[in-house]
Automatic annotation (TrEMBL):
Keywords: Calcium, Cell projection, Cilium, Metal-binding. Residues 30-135 form the F5/8 type C domain. It comes from Pelodiscus sinensis. GO terms for cellular component: centrosome; cilium; intraciliary transport particle B. This is Intraflagellar transport protein 25 homolog. Component of the IFT complex B, at least composed of IFT20, IFT22, IFT25, IFT27, IFT46, IFT52, TRAF3IP1/IFT54, IFT57, IFT74, IFT80, IFT81, and IFT88. Interacts with IFT27. Interacts with IFT88. It comes from the Eukaryota.
Length: 153
């Protein structure tokens, strides 16, 4: 006789930051690049490192989760971003994006902008962040966090 013990659903599911390179996430496209401030810095989990843009807008970057994930909250830490649009895609390839949210951010002199988006839970394989305009010629994106549930079965 075998006894099969299954963990409770709450034990199989854990909320995690899905936008970390340690979770297998990658930045697969960025419209500008500087070897000192590469786009991979966005997903390294540190607000001390960052990706910086060139002086033209719009600028964008795409994050690939390599699987379908469920996201309940997005947070971005950036500097000098004026207008931001976030889009999602469920496709196998980074196409067919749909808008999640678009917002004008507040200027924070000498401090990072931390913008939290509590959204109805949604699924995505890709997220595209479009920086439509800025308060200066350059912006920096320090971290992107996507809080979601990962099924550990």
């Amino acid at each position: 006789m075998f006894l099969i013990i299954q963990p409770k659903l709450s034990e199989r599911m854990k909320s995690t930051d899905l936008c970390l390179s340690s979770e297998g996430t990658e930045v697969i496209l960025a419209t500008s690049s500087d070897e000192k401030y590469p786009p991979e810095n966005i997903i390294d989990g540190s607000s001390e490192t960052f990706w910086t843009t060139t002086g033209m807008f719009p600028q964008e970057f795409i994050i690939n989760f390599h699987k379908c994930v469920k996201i309940s909250k997005l947070t971005i830490q950036c500097y000098l971003v004026r207008s931001l649009r976030i889009e999602k895609s469920l496709s196998k390839d980074p196409v067919d994006f749909e808008e999640c949210v678009e917002k004008d951010l507040q200027y924070t002199e000498g401090a990072l902008q931390t913008e939290e988006f509590s959204l109805p839970e949604f699924q995505a394989t890709y997220l595209r962040f479009i920086i439509k305009s800025a308060f200066d010629h350059f912006v920096s994106v320090h971290t992107v966090m996507a809080e979601g549930l990962v099924d550990n079965i």
